[in-house]
């Protein structure tokens, strides 16, 4: 970020032969401010007060200046101040005419039209403070200066990581030391990485004063991972190859699984006649050795070595047999074992009987459903066709007196029909009236009563 600096009113800090003239400059500034009003007209702008350069490469110190006054002469002066030396004259210019120091004329170059300086090539001995001063003469003389600190760095080379011991360690017993080394580099910062993430100090992680060495005490299974060393400085960064220390541990999480049967806890229920394959596994480095042990009559004996065991259930003489799987790590010296029981049942016959019972129940339900459907269909048909037969029968049985009585209600055919319908409604309920052209009306009742109207 560019920083603008005003002339002596802001911070005039030019120092020559280690004699500060800041106070004098401030008085001059106040005088010109009251007399000419041009004190703040000259400004110097630099990108940063500290710049890092790479040894052997050119370095450009950018300096811009501007002023708002009429000037007859513009003078630029560059000085160099080493860590333990007085300021040295490098070059100067008046109205873009450069006058270099003959000792440094091929190393330092002024880049017009501004006050920038080129250093080529950059060496370690060029590290220090560079002072630039600009004088502008018009109605009076105004001056501004600035100091830039230059740091020269050597790029880092790819680091190497060494592990001690290189053969591996046993958890909770051994320790691991990782050392990071590199060929070249200045102002180097070391950062240890684990699985691509920065590694910080912890209960079992200890770093050296410059972070170049990592000590893991004690080693545990959780320390397994990919370690690397990242080195950097202001001008470069490099990371080492990944290294994975060897840590021996286990066995942990021993368990037994089967490809068939029902497993409830440590009990495996299998069908008679089935061949079952059991698998024993545990987390360990190096891999465990496994042994299968059978218990019978309060005695145990090894029946097989290896992670797999095949059991034929129809050769088992008992209904339940106890087994045990044992895992052993020959490097850590630790072992673990798990017990389980195999129970042989007639699962196939029970399934068949259960299936037969299910089929019988289904047949009963189906028969009842069919009977109900047929009964409902028969009742519907009977109700649909039975009333027509009742009409003829009841019409023959109707008393003639009632018939005649119905006809006396009206003297004409139309009135007779109305009277007959009125008469039918009084006889019974509910009813349903039907008429047909050219025939006498009929009253049909749901209960089978039919009257001739």
From TrEMBL:
InterPro entries linked to this entry: HEPACAM_domain, Ig-like_dom, Ig-like_dom_sf, Ig-like_fold, Ig_sub, Ig_sub2, Ig_V-set
Sequence intervals crossing the membrane = 359-382
Location within or outside the cell: Cytoplasm, Cytoskeleton, Microtubule organizing center, Centrosome; Cytoplasm, Cytoskeleton, Spindle; Golgi apparatus membrane; Midbody
Main subcellular location: cytoplasm
Q: Please list the residue ranges annotated as the Ig-like domain.
A: 159-243, 245-341
Give yes or no: UniProt keyword rRNA-binding: no
User: Does this entry carry the keyword Ion transport?
Assistant: no
Task: List this protein's GO terms for biological process.
Answer: cell division; centrosome cycle
Cellular component GO terms held in the UniProt record:
centrosome; Golgi membrane; midbody; spindle
Which residues does UniProt assign to the signal peptide? none
**How does the UniProt record describe the way this protein sits in the membrane?**
Single-pass type I membrane protein
For this UniProt record, the keywords arranged alphabetically read as follows:
ADP-ribosylation, Cell cycle, Cell division, Cytoplasm, Cytoskeleton, Disulfide bond, Glycoprotein, Golgi apparatus, Immunoglobulin domain, Membrane, Mitosis, Repeat, Signal, Transmembrane, Transmembrane helix
- An example of a Pfam family matching this protein is Ig_3
Task of the protein? Required during prometaphase for centrosome maturation. Following poly-ADP-ribosylation (PARsylation) by TNKS, translocates from the Golgi apparatus to mitotic centrosomes and plays a key role in the formation of robust microtubules for prompt movement of chromosomes: anchors AKAP9/CG-NAP, a scaffold protein of the gamma-tubulin ring complex and promotes centrosome maturation.
Q: What is this protein called?
A: HEPACAM family member 2
Lineage at the top is:
Eukaryota, Metazoa, Chordata, Craniata, Vertebrata
